[in-house]
Task: structure prediction
Amino acid sequence: VRGEGVLSRSRKEGRGEERKRKEREREREGRKMDVHSGFTRSVSSLRGTNADEDKQRKTSIICTVGPKVANVTMLGKLLDEGMDVMRLNFSHGDHKYHAATIDALREALAKRPGKICAIALDTKGPEIRTGQLEAGASEVKIESQSEVIITTNDDFAEKGSSKCIYVDYKDLPRTVRPGMAIYIDDGLLNLEVVECRADSVVCVAINTAFLGSKKGVNLPGAIVTLPAVSEKDKSDLLFGVAKSVDMIFASFIRRAEQVEEIRTVLGEASKNIKIFSKIENQEGLDNFDDILRVTDGVMVARGDLGIEIPPSKVFTAQKFLIRKCNIAGKPVICATQMLESMIVNPRPTRAEVSDVGNAIVDGADCVMLSGETAKGKYPLDAVRTMDHVAREAEEFVDNERVCEYMRAKTPRPLSNMEGVAHAAVRMSFEEGISMIVIISETGDTARVVAKYRPLVPIFSITGSPTAARHSVMNRGVFPILVPSVKFNDVNSLLNMALMAGKSTGICQTGSKAVAVYDDSITDNVEEATTLRILTVE
Result:
């Protein structure tokens, strides 16, 4: 036993010396690579990597930002914990507030050379909301079985009471009919329609609830006539264009033409801004195939969806939407109440942990925090928790099986890019590949390779800051941004990636990597014509 103890100590000492040697080697490589505009630091902070953890988190984390964290210090801490996308909710706050938040994030990023974080503008969308309560009351109590009149008469916009509630949807009396339900404040108050009048609807309260001002209204089963883009949305979208946001989270998308309407508002000059359609009602589910053809990505927005359709069906809707996005090769976000209890508690419930893990196993590219980071007591703990759960869940995924499932479900004939992407990922499973390297102008090649879910990291080298930020939406893609003047020589770019892999311990001398790129990398056309095996020297 003593001999085993000595041997154990000897082995530990040997491993310690080997670890120190590797660290010194990485430091030398890092100093060599500082000439490449800080990209080493970007890769060396691979999502979810720390001194005691060898799993790289492939799933991206989206953090909703509220006044509590909308400053340089807190945004910097969120970045350090793992925030990949900052979400701005335009249902709240004015343009001055959002502009200051964007500027604060960019200041925090400037202090972290090479760190990449995208900015998402979440539109208010065609929401229906109640008015203000009378005499500045904070809330009123509505008793079960009491009669409640829902009015669209503007005279009552600031005179809400337990007997009469104003809503801002003028077509309400023509949209609902007796027997239909009206849900207010995320379903906390359930009303049943009894009678429809010219400018009001008579209802009976199904339950007792306390109601505040400006609460959301849902009309499950109704065909709402609101436009996809309101005047406020148009103003917000143009603000986003002026502030160079990376993507739009478009609320309450019900039909494909609504996505095109948003593109028209953004204009030709802003065609690089990605649109993620939020699926939040039955109509969006019914028209999803058409929406998926024209959208850049999808958010499974389970909050309103869980009110618009029976809660028991949200489970299947989530899996249905994620699977269709995966097959189409378009990034998909799972959102709402993922770690809801962490708004007030430092630890999540076990059910919430399982929810996040299951969304990742389902195939979500990104998971989103809402109130947890926007107004919660423990925003940093929430990001850290999501990071840990994501890495654990990713280990459970059978990537090779997913790869073959995606190939089997992809419509034939495959495009050249699809064929090369699948071949690269297939090779990574069979040949002991340590990493996949993409040289990409637009990010399209990285997106398609990510569709086939390789087990190894995908390093996407680009000279476009926009493409780099878009790439974080795809699972397993780690963008490396190089100065555009250096984005011209394939061999130099590949060597950069291999050096980055060595400096972070992803690969070592003698390891193999797969490279995918276009013959011409600067013609603004991405075709992925070349697949090449590299050996790390």
Q: What stands out?
A: The radius of gyration is 25 Å. The longest strand covers residues 189-196. The chain is about 40% helix and 20% strand. Residues 2-33 form the longest helix (32 residues).
